[in-house]
Amino acid sequence: MPVTAVSGSASGIGAAVCAVLRAAGHRIIGIDRANAEVIADLSSAEGRQAAVAQVLEQSGGVLDGLVCCAGLGVTAPSSSLLLAVNYFGVSQLLDGLVDALAKGENPAALVIGSVAATQPGADQQPMVEALLAGDEARSLTLANDLGQPHVAYACSKYAVTCEARRKSVPWAAQGIRLNVVAPGAVETPLHQAAKDDARYGKSVSEFVAPLGRAGHPEEIAQVVAFLQSSQASFVTGSVIFVDGGMDAMVRAQRF
Ligand SMILES: NC(=O)c1ccc[n+]([C@@H]2O[C@H](COP(=O)([O-])OP(=O)(O)OC[C@H]3O[C@@H](n4cnc5c(N)ncnc54)[C@H](O)[C@@H]3O)[C@@H](O)[C@H]2O)c1
To answer: Can you tell me which residues the record assigns to a coiled coil (predicted)?
Structure first.
């Protein structure tokens, strides 16, 4: 039975990933702030270390899969918290669990990014350079100083996508696949909070994908399950948009 760790397992996309992978026969080690096999706060270095230690304990040091779903949206209490969870809460889980994955059977890891990663200008923000350099203190300060949560969100997703892609190259030599799924709008508590927000509600509600609706968490989870399965054995370092056509609508000539 494959053993897969899933962060953000208690809600939304992460919960749907757990359900689909369980149905496919995986044993799941969920990681979240509550209602999970591993209770940990991925916003701090100590919390991430505790999460890694508990996953290693519960898995016996051998993992077949890792899916990083935990994340905060534009209504997060601060831009710094958003970066801490969305970037470092992913990169440090990947780093902490790579040796366990290397011992697994047909190991595969996956990061939930976002179409927001392609937001114009996000790649040019100084906080991205700080994120990719692993400078948590500087990136968090830059994000709070900017005071624009939607830019911090786009930067966190752009940087975490770059980080997954650059890790995927050396990981391939260890036999570990690592991909990114970039959802568009998906009906979860995170998305609902953005729609209810006075600053962002109107634009989020009006930005509708060509398919004419937001996605359901299960529609993301099915693609994640495919990428984590041996059916996707030659797919690594890829960014798969699961967005109802949003990316094609905005950037038809970039891919
Ligand atoms: N819903 C969307 O429209 C959408 C679109 C693109 C990308 N995403 C991404 O999908 C992922 C899942 O989001 P969702 O929409 O399912 O949201 P959600 O709020 O339903 O679930 C997020 C989960 O992450 C957990 N989490 C947050 N902070 C944490 C912390 N400090 N430590 C541990 N766990 C923490 C939460 O407790 C929650 O269970 C996120 O990375 C999000 O950025 C969502």
So the answer is: none
